[in-house]
Design goal:
Helix content: 10-25%
Number of helices: 1
Order of helices and strands: EEEEH
Oligomer: single chain
Number of domains: 1
Amino acid sequence: MLNNFHRIEPDCNYIFFKADGTANLWYGKSITGEYEFFNHFGVHPITGKTLKEGSVYIKDKYICEKNDQ
């Protein structure tokens, strides 16, 4: 298990992609259906489901748009 794996609360200023284009953010849904974000690939600590790689769509729809409200 990664010692540095943890949930994060990104905003539009978060660095979503590394210089080589790979993801720097992963996400999964909580048991209540809310999106939760993490700093490493892995499994959701509560649901046990594999986290998905962040994308521009996820950033725009669920992080930046949410923070604008």
